Amino acid sequence: MRKLDGKVKIAIYVYIIAVGVFHLYTSIFGNFEAYLQRALHLSMVLPLVFVLYPVSKKLKDSGVPFYDWVLAGLSFLPGAYIAANYWAISTRIVQVDPITTTQLVLGILLVVLLLEATRRIVGMPLTIIALVFLLYMGVAAKIPGLFQGISFSVPEIVEEVFLTDEGIFSSPLGVSATYVMIFLIFGGFLEKSGVGDFFMRFAQAFTGTQPGGPALIAVTSSCLFGSISGSAVANVYGTGTFTIPLMKKIGYPAYFAGAVEAVASTGGQIMPPVMGAGAFLMASFLGLPYRTVMIAAIIPALMYYGAVFLMVRLSAHKYGLKGLSAEELPKKKDVLKDSYMVIPLVGLVYFLLAGATPMRAAVFGIVLAWLVSFFKPKSQNQAKQRLSIIIGAVISVLITVAFVFPRFVEPIIKGDIGLWILVAGFVAATFLNDGMRPKDVLDAIYSGTMGIPLVAIACATAGIVLGSVALTGIGGKLVGFVLSFAKDYRFLGLLLIMAISILLGMGLPTTGAYILASALGAPILVKMGIPPLSAHMFVFYFAVISNITPPVALAAFAAASISGANPNKIGFQAMRLGFLAFVVPFAFCYDQGLLLQASPIANVLAVATGIISVLAFGYFWVGYIKHPIPLWMRAILLVAGVMALAPQALYVAVSAGLVIVCYILSASGKVVAVHQKAVVLKE
Question: According to a count of CB atoms within 10 Å of the terminal CB, is the N or C end of the chain lower?
C-alpha cells in the first residue's frame, strides 16, 4: 500500500470517512434498492484501489502517478451511469432489450478495471479464475466433453455481468455494501474505544502466569479479537506483534510461536458473533437469519479453540515452559474493573439473538462502544474526566429508558426529524467524551472503512464467476461430474469438495474462497443429501483453514513476517494444532447436533462428543497427559477421538471410557513414555 503524504493524504482521509459516513447513513435510514446500493458501493471503493495500491509491489513511491488518477476517475463512470440511468436499467428485460453502445463500453471498462484492481489488492489467483470463467462464457461451445456448453457473444456477457444482479452486482457485493461495511466500522469503534485493548489485557491477566502463558495469551486474545475482526491476517498482526516475541522469550521456537498465532488468528473467522464476511454471505445465500448461522457455529468454534488451548498448555507442561511473572502483566482486579468494556459485544449478541437485522445490531453495537468510552477518559484533567463520566451516565440512563419504555421513543425514532436530533446529539456529546474524542470517532470510521476495498473487490470479482455459473449452467455439469465419480459414497464426495475448497482458498481471502466454493461445491453436497446449512458450513470451514494450509497459507506468511521462521514450517505446525478443524466439518455433515440443529437430546450428545474429541485429539497430538504417553496409548486416543464424533450414544460412551482410562493411567504414573523429550519444539 502506498504511504501518502501532504494534501493527497488529507484528501483521501476525508474521502474514506465520507464513504464510511454514507454507509452509516444507509444503515440507519435505510439502503437504496439492492442493485443501486451495490453499484454506488463499488463506485466509491474501486477508485481507492488505484490510489492506494501501486501497479507493482516493487514500486515504493509515496505519490500517486498520473495514470492511477486516470484509472481512479474512470472507475467512477460505470457507477455514475447506473445511478443516473437506474430506472431505465431496472425496467429493461434481460436478453430481450438490446444493450446500447454506452452500456457495452462501460461494462467492458468496469470488467477490465475490476480485474486490474483484483490483481493489485487480492492477487493473481482470483484474477485468473475470473478470466477463465469470462472466457468460458465465450467459448463454451468449442470445449469438448463434459463441460461443453452454449457460447455467448460479448454483448450478452457484458449484459450478464454488468446490467443484472447475477454478475458483478450480485449478492456477495450486496453483503459487502451492507453487513460487512457496517461491521468493519463497528470493529473500528471497538478498537478506538478501548475494547480491543481490554481483550488483550484480559488474556494477559488470566492466562499469562500459567505454563506457556504467552501462547495461551495468543490463543485467548486471538479468539476474543478475531471474533470481532473476522480477518486472519489482521488478527495475526493485531495480536501477534505482542504475543510471538513473548512466546519466543520463554522458550518456544520461532516456528511454533508463529504457528500458535496463525492457528489462533485463523479461528477468529469461525468464532461468533461476527465471523467475518463469509458468515454474512452464508446467511444471504441460504436465506437464513444471521443468528441461525451464528448459533450453528458455536460448538465447532469452541471445539477448535478448546483443542488449540489444550494442546498449547500440554506442550508447555511437556517441555517445562514457564509463564510470565505477575509483575509483567496487568492485575486481575484492574482488568475486572473494566469489565463494562464487553458491553458492546454483549449488546451485539443480544440484538442479533433478539431478531434484529445484522446492520441494526451493528449500529447498536457502535453506539454502545462509543458509550462505554465515556467511562474510560484519557486526559489527566480531573474536571474533564468527571464531566465525561457524568455525560456517559446521563446517556446510559436515557438509553435504558428508551428500552424500558419503547412506546414513547419509537414515534421519535421513526420520524426523520427525531433521528436527525439523535444524530446531532451524538455529535455534540462526542465533544464532551474524554474517552473517544471527535478525532477518535473519525479515525474509527476511517480504520473500519479501510478494510472494505479487499472485501468489496473480492466479492465483485467473484460475482463474475457467479454470473458465468448462472449463464452457462456449468455448476450443474460439475454436480453431475462429482456425483458420477463419488456415486453413493458421501464421504468420497466430501473429500473432493474439501480439496476443491482448500485449493480455491490458496492465495485468496476467505471471502472470495467461500463464494467460489459455495457456488461450485455446496450444491453438490446438497444433492448428496447433506442439509444446506451443513454443506455451506463445510465449504466455509475449509475456505477459512486454507489460511494455514501450505504452500500458500496467508496467516502463516503473516506470522512468519513477525517470528522470522519459515512460513511452510509454520503452516504445517499450524495444521497440526488446528487438526480438529479438518475433522469437525465431516462430523457435522453427519451429525446435525454439532450445529445445534437437531433435537435437544441430540444437541446435548453432540456437546459431549465435542468435549471428548477435544481431549482425545489433544492428548494424541501432543503425546502428553500428566506425563509423556507411549505410542500405543496415543493410538487408542486417536481411535477414541474418531469414535466420539460418531452420532451414536454407544460410541460416545466407549470413547469417553477410553479417554478416562488413559487419563487415569497417565496421572498415576503407571504408564510413561520411555523418551521424555521430543523433537517437535526443536529448531
Answer: C
